[in-house]
Amino acid sequence: MRPRVYLTRRLPQAAVDIVTAACETTFWDDEALPVPRETLLRAVAEVDGILTLLTDRVDVELLDAAPRLKVVANMAVGYDNVDLPALTARGVLLTNTPDVLTETTADLVWALILAASRRVVEGHRLIAAGGWSTWSPMFMVGQDVHGATLGIVGAGRIGAAVARRAVGFGMPILYHNRHPSPALEAQIRATPGAAIRYVPNLDDLLTESDVVVVMVPLTPETRGMFGAREFALMKPTSVFVNASRGPVIREAELIDALQRGRPWAAGLDVFEREPIGADHPLLTLPNVVLTPHIGSATVATRTRMAVVAATNLVAALTGQPVPNPVNDGGRLRVERRAPPV
Ligand SMILES: NC(=O)C1=CN([C@@H]2O[C@H](COP(=O)(O)OP(=O)(O)OC[C@H]3O[C@@H](n4cnc5c(N)ncnc54)[C@H](O)[C@@H]3O)[C@@H](O)[C@H]2O)C=CC1
Ligand SMILES: O=C(O)C(=O)CO
């Protein structure tokens, strides 16, 4: 009998084709809006696998509603929407979509660095409001990006891709991780003149950096990692960028810090509670650039992520090696890979 699966959103056709070729498939037929919780809980009653998005909460309630469940294929590299210990305790495999979104997300981080440092959105708004009267020496002056010191908190796959781009801007790089990464250091130092240094103490990185980029996963350790104390350590000219997960930052404290001018500006792709509305206090600040969680949002990358998630789902349910297992997944066959940097 073919395995039964549920897809929690309408996906690119290439991914749907992979799943329907191997599985009896039902799905929430909407591209824009998440499946309502009650519908999801009913839909998973008989399924062997589900393909989820980061907007779907996968918890004990859902596991209870899905007694046959063997695999959850999350279409994201981050999986903080999933109660991993609960899945593992029941022998349910979790898969994610690393690597395919790394470069695209690093590009967006750079868009935020540049836009926040050089007041790109503020300048656009000013012109649109008819506020541009003339060129003057200190009109709309920002902070230099080239040559500035870049501090990366969480220099894994995406953080490393952000670092590689910084070499072209002549930026000395500091990084704070759980462990030093000789592979990343060798990559950066392969370019003559490029500099990178591991900083074991986060406070030191914050004090020394001109641009701080946060790319850690959301875990119990990283939740609330940045608050008033950390922002007060940053330079009054510094730019802060978060494209990891909103709850890594204590948002109210960031707003307060931005109002005080330290950091000087921020670029944010992720928020404590998503989506945020037009009445969000961050939008009252001139020194922020906000994007709606679009780090991986290019046609090519979102299609690849959907295909990778579909491939993981089908592989798990048809006895093939699973490309991107996060946990051990009980009875399913998974292929162990080297851990990320
Ligand atoms: N804005 C967006 O659209 C996107 C956001 N993301 C977010 O970015 C995160 C990172 O993705 P990858 O780079 O692929 O993951 P990764 O696992 O390769 O990198 C994460 C890095 O953070 C480090 N880290 C973890 N806990 C830490 C701690 N307490 N202190 C210091 N360092 C710590 C790890 O050692 C690792 O080097 C994802 O988990 C996801 O939440 C990912 C893709 C797109
Ligand atoms: O993959 C992730 O973790 C995202 O946030 C979206 O690409």
Automatic annotation (TrEMBL):
Keyword list, A-Z: Oxidoreductase
This enzyme's EC code(s): 1.1.1.79, 1.1.1.81
GO CC, any one term: cytosol
Residue ranges of every copy of the D-isomer specific 2-hydroxyacid dehydrogenase catalytic domain listed in the record: 6-327
Catalytic activity, as annotated: (R)-glycerate + NADP(+) = 3-hydroxypyruvate + NADPH + H(+); (R)-glycerate + NAD(+) = 3-hydroxypyruvate + NADH + H(+); glycolate + NADP(+) = glyoxylate + NADPH + H(+)
Record protein name field: Glyoxylate/hydroxypyruvate reductase B
Family, similarity comment: Belongs to the D-isomer specific 2-hydroxyacid dehydrogenase family. GhrB subfamily.
A matching Pfam family: 2-Hacid_dh
Gene3D superfamilies named in the record: NAD(P)-binding Rossmann-like Domain (3.40.50.720)
GO MF annotations, alphabetized: glyoxylate reductase (NADPH) activity; hydroxypyruvate reductase (NADH) activity; hydroxypyruvate reductase (NADPH) activity; NAD binding
